[in-house]
Amino acid sequence: MEREFEVIGEALHRLEQGDPETAAGIEDLRRIVGFRNRIIHGYDTIDDATVWGVIEGRLPRLIEQVSALLEQAGERV
Fold this sequence. Notes:
Blueprint: H1 2-18, H2 20-23, H3 29-41, H4 48-57, H5 59-76
Helix pairs in contact: 1-3
């Protein structure tokens, strides 16, 4: 799961750089990118309980927000 969070954080970081307007649709974008950085650079400070807490507490909302952005993008195409 940690690898998936690394990918998510990197993708959101690139989205923020390339399309800040769309990135604004992700409430916790900076925190997600920060979590990615913590996993990569401070991997020894991440424990399973922290990762599981993010999965349960934050991931469902992120999925909702990304789904909404994808729907909006489909309408614009």
